[in-house]
Amino acid sequence: MIIGVPKETYPGERRVAMVPAAIPNLAKGGCEVIIEAGAGLAAGYLDAQYVEKGAKIIPLRADVFAPADIVIQVLCYGANDKTGRADLPLMRRGQTLIGFLRPLASPATVAEIAATGVTAFAIELMPRITRSQSMDALSAMATVCGYKAVILAADCLPRLFPMLTTAAGTITPARMLVLGAGVAGLQAIATGRRLGAVVSAYDVRPAVKEQIHSLGGRFVELPLETGQAEDARGYAQAQDESFYRRQREVLTRVVAESDVVISTAVVPGKQAPVLITADMVEKMSPGSVIVDLAAERGGNCELTVPNATVVRHDVTIIGLFNVAGTVPYHASQMYARNLATFIPHLVADGKIHLDLEDQITRETMVTREGSVVHPRISELLPQTATHNA
Ligand code: NAD
User: Fold this and answer.
1) What phi and psi values does residue 142 have, to the nearest 5 degrees?
2) Across 51-171, where does the E strand assignment appear?
3) Which percentage of the chain shows pLDDT scores above 90?
4) What is the pLDDT of residues 92-110, one digit of tens each?
C-alpha cells in the first residue's frame, strides 16, 4: 500500500499532510510513504528526516500521484480553489484521496473529482463521535487557530496582558472576550488566561458554561432565550435574525469593555452571524483588537475585511484566513496524526477495505466509482452532475 504525499500548492500554504514521526506507525500497518521533494520544508521537516523514518523522496509531483494507492493532502482541489485543479489529471480510478475538500461549499468540484474515478474522503466531514476524536482534523486545526488568535491579538495590543505589580506602578490586566466557545474558543480562553488576561466568554450553547469556568473564564450571562441551541452533533443551531439583533444589543456593553475580542461563532453550512457591528467597534477603546476567526465564513464583525488586517475607529480588526497554516510545524504534526489514525481505518490486509456500515467511512466518503456518493453533497448538485463516469 503506497501513500503519496504531494507538496501543498495553495499559495502561502506551509503545512504538509505527513510528518516524519507519524511514518513508522503507517509502516507497521504495511504502508510505504512516498513524498514529493521539499514537501515538508516550509513546515520545518527536512527530506532527510522523512528518509530516516523510511519514506522515499520523489522529485516529480506526477510520480507521487502515479503509483500511490492513497494520496493525502492538506488542501485538496475544492479546499484549494486556486491551484488544486492542476491535480485532477494526475488522479486515477481506484486511487483514494484524503484531505480537506470543502465539499459543501464547492460541490461542483467534488463532481469533478468524482469524474476522475478516485475515491475521495473529505476529512472535514468526520463525525464528532468519541471513536473518531483522534481523526478529527477540524478540531486539531481549531485548537491551533484558537491559540494563535490570542498571540496575534497580544502582538497588536498596545497593552500588556497580565496584571503586574512593579516598582514602576501597577499594570491592570487586559480584558479579553471570546465569542463562541467551541474548540477554537476554548483554546483561546486557555491561552488568554495563561498570558494573564481576565477572560470572559459567551456561546449560544449553554452546555459550554462549565467548560468556560473550568478554564478560568467567566461565562457572560445574556438575557436571551436561545431555544434549540444545539443540534444532535453538538453544533450550534442557526437562530433567527431577531435573536442576532437582540444578541448584538446585549453584547454592546461587554464588547465596549473589552481590550481584545476573539470571535469564533459559526453555524455549520451557514454564513457566520454578525455579532459585532460598526457601532459596537466605535464604542471600544482606541488600540483594542478584534481577531475574527470566522472571517473565512463571512466574519462575526461587520468591519472585517477578508484575509486582511485593518484599523477601523482605532480598533485593529484581524480577518486573517488559514490561521492554522501560520503554525505549520505543529498544525502538520496534528494533521498527520489525524490521518495516520484514519488511514488504518480504511485499510485491511494491505488493501483498501471500505466498510460502508461504519459511520466514519460512510460520512467522510464523498466520491466513489465515478459518482458523488455523499447525500448532503449530491443534494446540492444538478442530478446529472452526480454521475460523471
Ligand atoms: P464550531 O466551529 O462549529 O462553532 C464555534 C462555536 O460558535 C460553537 O461553540 C457554537 O456554539 C458557537 N456559536 C454559534 N453561533 C453563535 C452565536 N450566535 N453566539 C455565540 N456563539 C455562537 O464548533 P466546534 O468548535 O467545531 O465544536 C462544536 C461542538 O462540538 C463543541 O461542543 C465541541 O466540544 C464538540 N466537539 C465534539 C467532538 C467529539 O465528540 N468527537 C469533537 C469536536 C468537537
Assistant:
1) -65, -35
2) 56-58, 70-75, 96-100, 119-122, 164-166, 169-171
3) 86
4) 999 999 999 999 988 999 9
**pLDDT of 123 higher than 80:** yes
> What distance in Å separates the CA atoms of residue 247 and residue 283, rounded to the nearest whole number?
16
CB 33 within 8 A of CB 50: yes
pLDDT digits (tens, 9 = 90+) for 289-330: 999 999 999 999 999 999 999 999 999 999 999 999 999 999
Closest atom of ligand 1 relative to the 273 alpha carbon? 18
Q: At what angle do helices 137-156 and 183-194 cross, to 10 degrees?
A: 40
Helix H segments across the chain?
23-28, 47-52, 61-65, 107-115, 137-156, 183-194, 209-214, 241-256, 278-282, 328-346, 359-364, 375-378
Do 93 and 105 meet the contact criterion of CB atoms below 8 Å apart? no
Mutate to test the pocket of ligand 1, among 144, 204, 212, 364 (most ligand atoms within 8 A of CB): 204
**Atom 9 in ligand 1: which residue has the minimum CA distance?**
182
Which residues surround ligand 1 with Cβ inside 6 Å? 128-130, 133, 136, 138-139, 142, 179-185, 202-205, 234-236, 247, 264-268, 273, 275
Q: Which residue has the cell 498596545?
A: 158
Query: Which among 139, 261, 363 is the best mutation to test ligand 1's pocket, defined by most ligand atoms within 8 Å of the CB?
Result: 139
> Ligand 1 atom 42: the closest Cα is on which residue?
128
Q: Which residues contact 113 (CB under 8 A, 6 or more apart)?
A: 76, 77, 78, 88, 91, 97, 101, 120, 366, 367
Catalytic residues: 128, 133, 136, 139, 235
**Where does 68-174 have alpha helices with state H?**
107-115, 137-156
